[in-house]
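assembly run, all chains below
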Amino acid sequence: MHEWDFAFLIDQRHFILQGLLGTLRLAVVSLVAGTVIGLVGATARLSGSAILRAVGTGYVEFFRNIPVLVQIFWLYFSIPILTGVQPNAYAAAAIATSLYAGAYLTEVFRSGIASIEKGQWDGARAVGFGHGMTMRYVVLPQAFRRVLPAFTNQVLEIVKTTSVASTIAYAELLYSAKLLSEQEFRPIEAYTAVGAAFILVLLPTSAIAGMMERRLARHG
Amino acid sequence: MADEVLRVEGLHKHYGPLHVLRGIDLTVRRGEAVVILGASGSGKSTLLRCLNFLEMPGAGRIHLEGRLVGREARDGRIRYPNRELSALRMRVGMVFQQFNLFPHMTAERNVMIGPMKLRGLSEAEARRVAAANLEKVGILEKARSYPAQLSGGQQQRVAIARALAMEPSMMLFDEVTSALDPELVGEVLLAMRQLREDGMTMLIVTHELGFAYNVADRVVFMEHGVIHEEGTPQQVLLNPQRPRTRDFLRSHTLFRLPEQMHDDPPGPFALTTREQG
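ok done. output:
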C-alpha cells in the first residue's frame, strides 16, 4: 500500500510555483494570440473573397488536423535543421499552441457570427452602418453571447494543451512535476499535485464564465 | 424637379435566371405617401430592398433628391461604392416586416446608436433625439425596455423611431404589419399615418387595403416585376382597370363584415383606435 507524502511538494513549492507560472504564461499568450488569430480567421472564412475564404479554411484544416504535439516537435526539432535557427522551448511551444488555439477559435467565432440572423445585418445597414460598424456594434456583441459556452470550453482546452510543452523541456507545471517526481521518487504525489493545480486554475475560470453567461442571458 | 425625392428609371433585378424586376419607373414627390400592392413574388419587396441597396439593382437608375446614385462607368453600367451606399442609407429610412431591432440594446439604445456613431451626436443629444422619436410613435414609456420585453407592435414602433432618428429624406416600409397579431396592426398603422400627416415622404409595401385607401396619395399595383396599374387610391382600389388588379383586390376582400358588404368594390376599412400598452 502506497504511503502518501506531500511534504516534499511543500519544501519545493517555489519550484512548483515556477512551473505554474510557466503554464500560465504559455496559456495567456496562446489565448490572446489564438483569440486574435480566431477573429481574423473567422473574418476570412466569412469574407466575400474566395481567396480569403480558402486561406482561412486551409489554415483551420491544417492546424486542426495535426496533433499539437507533432506541431511542437516539428517546430522544435525540424526548424533548426531546416534553417539553422534553434527556437527556444518557450517560443516553439507558444507558436504551436497559439496556431492550434487559433484554428479552433476561428471555428468558434465563425459559427457565432454566422448564427446572427440576416435581419440584423439588414437592420444595421438600413441605419447606415458599413461592414465594420455592423460587426462591431451589432453582430459581434450578439455573437459573443452565443459562443460564450463554446469559447469557455476552448479556453479550458487550450490551458490544458499547454502541458504538451513539457515534452520539449519547457518549464511548465507538468515538466516541473516530472523533474520533482524523478528526484524524489514520488510520481503519484507529483502528478496528483499537477492535476489539483489545473483544477484550481480552471474551476474559477469556468465559474467566471458561468456568471458572465447568466448575466448576459438576462436580455435577448 | 425640385420636389422629387425619388426617381427610379428602368430598374431591373435578376436572381440568376429569375428576372424579378423588369423595368420599374417610379417617382415619389416630397411629402407623398405611395403604397405598393401586389401578390407575393410580384417583386415589391425586392424593389424596396433595391432602393436601399440591401439588394444590388441591375440595370436602371435611381435618383435621390435629384442626384444619380452611384457612378456611371464608360460601359453605361453604374457602380455603387460602399461609402456612398452607407451615406444613402442614412437618408433613406427602412422598416422591416421582422422589425430587426438589435436585441442586446434597449429601445432607447436602438434609436441612439445610429445618431451617435454616424451623425456624431453626443450621448445626451442622442438621448434627446431618441426620446423625441419614441414619443412621436407613442412608446416613450418603453425606452428602457429590451426588444424581447415588447410586443410586436411596440417593437415595430421602436423600429420606426430608429429609422426616423437618422432624419431621413424618405422612409421605406416593407410589409411592416404582416408579422403582427391582428390587434397590434392598428397601433403601427396609426403611427405611420401620423408620419404622413407630419409630411414624411413614404413608400409603403402593405396588404392593408384600408390603410392604402385612407392614407396613400397614390397606389401602385405590381405584377411580375412591372408596375401593372397606378393611380389614386380611389382609382386603383375602387375602380381598377386591369383584370389582374381586380382579381387581386377581390381575393383580398373575399370575406367582409356585413356593414362593408354594400361597398362594392372594396371600400375603406376603419382603423382601430389607438391602444397604448
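Chain A touches chain B at residues 119-120, 122-131, 133, 137-138, 141-142, 145, 219-220 (CB under 8 Å).

DSSP finds nine helices and no strands in chain A.

not gonna interpret more than that til we talk
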